[in-house]
Design brief:
The complex is a heterodimer of chains A (about 280) and B (about 475).
Chain A: E1 2-11, E2 14-20, H1 22-27, E3 33-37, E4 45-48, E5 51-53, E6 58-64, H2 68-74, E7 81-82, E8 84-89, E9 100-106, H3 109-122, E10 126-133, H4 142-147, E11 151-156, H5 167-176, E12 183-187, H6 190-200, E13 206-210, E14 226-229, E15 232-235, H7 236-239, E16 242-244, H8 250-257, H9 261-280
Parallel strand pairs in A: 9-10, 9-12, 10-11, 12-13
Antiparallel strand pairs in A: 1-2, 1-7, 2-6, 3-4, 3-8, 5-6, 13-16, 14-15
Helix pairs in contact in A: 5-6
Chain B: H1 16-19, H2 32-39, H3 49-52, H4 60-68, H5 72-80, H6 86-92, H7 114-128, E1 142-146, H8 150-161, E2 165-169, H9 178-181, H10 190-202, E3 206-208, H11 219-224, E4 229-232, E5 238-239, E6 252-254, H12 255-264, E7 281-285, H13 289-300, E8 305-309, H14 321-330, E9 333-335, E10 338-345, E11 351-364, E12 370-374, E13 380-382, E14 386-389, E15 393-394, H15 397-400, E16 428-430, H16 433-436, H17 441-462
The chains are: A alpha/beta (about 280), B alpha/beta (about 475).
Chain lengths: ~280, ~475
């Protein structure tokens, strides 16, 4: 069992849990992920590592309550435990030789972009951070991102925070104005990553994306997370989750992500019934 | 008085029509009377040919004669002197190519049902006795085992009896390896696997789950934690794909994924959190036990048609005869001498069919089996909405890629001495599918056993 030592509500849908997992914390690096199960009947769900503290022996995850498991997870409090917490999995991000980087987080993707920005910043890399949200109430990690970047631009789809547009629009503007990056790191919904890749492609800027396909074991055993990268089949769990965005078949990724949509809906409904049953009973 | 019947006492089974709709065990096991009757078929040969066919040297005539005398608990005790997982072996061992193949009764008629009797003794003991364990004095040495499948469990079972502190590192949240994620409930009930594992825990074996060795700890870091030796029994978990067009369509699974969802994650239960696609028409590609398991699972999930698509003929199928027989009884359709060339998708990216060619057998290839050759003009489309690829697995690269001084061969298998499991790295032993590539439960158990003995000798030689 793995104890929750800190819980924060970052916005109405997004929560942060800092969980005691000393073995995982000892090895964790930005770009890697963990797989957890909330309880004995739970499914195995991957979460990218948002932060870690080797001394405290904790690993932080940030998630949006979208499915049955994340809703269940969202109800847990400090002091509660999760059944399983396995990691660190996947290959850590590599930043050798980078001098100037743009780190882009779309919505919840900001939580995963944050440790990358933090690492780059600690290496002395100049970091432009661009984060985007649907509206100003959904903005997360503003202070944290500001602390690890030279410049932070936060944009909203509806302009409610004063800057309107998608992260890709902001990036395009910066590039047109002459910004020069060794690498662009884009993390968020697949469609956002795809659009960012389309923006950087003409400039020939290396663009790293972090993929989140469906997986079971996270160790290369099931192959459920296979993605096509540069025409080759790769397993996101062991070959990634970071990949060269210009090589990724995003259409296939999005299609494969929809594989269990119907059963996911049914599962959320089932949980809702159970919860309401508890409240009413 | 020996029972001279030429046939084994039949084992009660669920009716094929009934069992093809549930995940309960197919074979129901002998009653005491049946077991005694079958045990009496054993001639108690002095030279014990059967024992030479057993990778873990179960004292077969001895335990069978105890059953014939109605001394069931003693029969069980006799088996576990050399076999730490009898309830498992009695069910999934290929006895027909091991102990039973050597049985003298098999020369004329059927061999003694050694597997069925082993299973009987184990099941009887589980439901009628409370195990007690001889107190073993601890020698203060720690051994680490990577992987809690058959190789690791049997290695642990022997080492704990020798007085070692044994810790098993398991990557999944549950111990058992292929016994829990691979082999379906209807062939090997999971409650039984857990009971076998509990007997190891009761003897003091420690199992640490969620530990992916190669990631959370390297082999060198395990030694830094004070272990005197490491046994790697991490299996062959990496699924092979065919590299034909359409393999990434929605509705295409590796057998590993399909079976893990069903067996480990219980996706066959209506209220399971983990989903699995319930196909209407399912093609399973491959001819081994895993292919049979996947096909029979797909049928139980409610498919109308399930095909086994295999490029050679039935004679070359690597699956056990019993599995092929059971699959056929349940209505699995065998499309032999057929090879898929392309998986077809609809406009939304879901599987809608599979293009195949017919094959004919040519000259024998390196494996000694006749090489299948495509017949030109035989292309045809099979109507399926789910495709499961069960063409084999290879060892996972996570350990070898983080242990540079561990020698592996071109297939990624760890190179280990057949008799001792000794590898190129000092203090590191290996066995099971991680060494051989995918093979059987019992061969892995045999390798775990040999390694336990070699580890004991190695540690003693160091002091």
């Amino acid at each position: 069992m793995y104890r929750i030592v800190r819980k924060e509500i970052l916005n109405p849908q997004v929560k942060l849990l800092e969980i005691e997992a000393p073995y995982v914390a000892r090895k964790a690096e930005p770009g890697q992920f963990i797989i957890l199960r909330v309880n004995k009947e739970g499914e195995r769900v991957p979460f990218t590592i948002a932060d870690f503290d080797r001394e405290k022996g904790t690993v932080t995850i940030i998630f949006q309550e979208v499915g049955a498991t994340t809703q269940l997870l969202g109800q847990l409090n400090e002091g509660d435990e999760v059944e399983d917490f396995c990691g660190p999995l996947g290959v850590a991000s590599h930043f050798e030789g980078v001098k100037k980087a743009a780190v882009i987080g779309g919505g919840l993707g900001t939580a995963i972009a944050y440790p990358q920005a933090k690492k780059l910043h600690s290496m002395g890399v100049s970091v432009d951070a661009i984060t985007g949200f649907r509206n100003k109430d959904l903005i997360i990690l503003e202070k944290e991102m500001a602390a690890v970047s030279d410049r932070l631009i936060i944009t909203t789809d509806d302009g409610s925070n004063g800057t309107k547009g998608f992260v890709s629009d902001i990036l395009k503007k910066l590039l047109v104005e002459g910004a020069n990056y060794d690498v662009v790191i884009a993390i968020g919904p697949p469609i956002m990553m795809k659009v960012v890749c389309d923006v950087t492609r003409p400039y020939g800027i290396k663009t790293i994306v972090s993929l989140n396909p469906i997986m079971v074991d996270g160790t290369g055993m099931c192959g459920g997370c296979r993605v096509t990268v540069g025409g080759q089949i790769k397993f996101a769990c062991v070959d990634g989750p970071d990949f060269d965005g210009h090589e990724v078949d995003f259409t296939e990724l999005m299609r494969r992500l929809s594989m269990y949509k119907d059963s996911e809906k049914a599962s959320v409904e089932r949980h809702k019934c159970r919860l309401e049953g508890v409240v009413n009973g | 008085m020996a029972n001279m019947s030429l046939k084994k006492v039949p084992i009660p089974e669920q009716d094929p029509k009934v069992r093809s709709k549930n995940f309960d065990e197919v074979a129901l096991g002998y009653t005491e009377e049946m077991a005694v009757e079958e045990a009496k078929r054993c001639l108690n040969c002095k030279h014990k040919p059967c024992v030479s066919g057993c990778p873990v040297n179960v004292q077969i005539p001895e335990f069978i004669s105890l059953i014939a005398d109605g001394r069931f608990e003693e029969a069980y005790e006799k088996i576990i002197e050399t076999n730490s997982l009898p309830a498992v072996c009695g069910r999934v061992c290929p006895q027909e190519t091991q102990c039973e193949e050597k049985c003298v009764r098999g020369i004329k008629g059927e061999p003694v049902g050694i597997g069925r009797l082993e299973r009987f003794a184990a099941d009887w003991a589980m439901s009628n006795t409370k195990r007690t364990y001889k107190k073993v004095s601890k020698n203060g040495k720690k051994v680490a085992i990577v992987g809690s499948g058959p190789a690791g469990l049997s290695c642990a079972g022997d080492l704990i009896k020798m007085g070692y502190d044994v810790t098993i590192f398991e990557a999944f949240h549950l111990a058992g390896g292929v016994l829990v994620y691979g082999i379906p409930e209807f062939r090997l009930p999971k409650s039984l696997v857990q009971k076998e594992i509990e007997t190891l825990l009761e003897q003091g074996v420690e199992i640490k789950t969620n530990m992916v060795i190669g990631k959370v700890l390297t082999i060198d870091e395990i030694f830094e934690e004070g272990y005197s030796a490491v046994f790697i029994g991490s299996g062959a978990g990496l699924p092979s794909f065919m590299h034909i067009p359409g393999e990434n369509l929605n509705g295409v699974y590796s057998a590993n994924e399909f079976l893990t969802r069903i067996n480990l994650m219980k996706a066959y239960k209506e209220d399971a959190e983990t989903p699995v696609m319930r196909g209407r028409s399912v093609a399973v590609i491959g001819g081994g036990n895993v292919a049979m398991d996947a096909a029979r699972c797909a049928l139980r999930l409610g498919a109308d048609n399930v095909y086994i698509v295999y490029r050679r003929s039935e004679a070359e199928m690597p699956a056990r005869l019993e599995e092929i027989h059971h699959a056929k009884e349940e209505g699995i359709i065998f499309k032999l001498l057929t090879n898929p060339t392309k998986i077809l998708g609809d406009d939304k990216g879901w599987v809608k069919g599979m293009e195949c060619v017919e094959m004919e057998l040519g000259e024998p290839d390196a494996s000694g089996r006749r090489r299948p050759i495509a017949k030109s003009g035989s292309e045809h489309v099979v109507d399926v909405d789910t495709v499961i690829i069960a063409i084999g697995t290879s060892p996972n690269p996570l350990i070898r890629s983080t242990t540079p001084d561990l020698a592996t061969n071109k297939w990624g298998c760890i190179i280990a001495d057949e008799q001792t499991g000794r590898t190129s790295k000092e203090g590191v032993f290996a066995g099971g599918d991680a060494v051989t590539g995918s093979a059987t439960v019992i061969l892995a158990m045999g390798a775990g056993k040999k390694a336990a003995k070699a580890i004991d000798e190695y540690i003693k030689s160091k002091n």
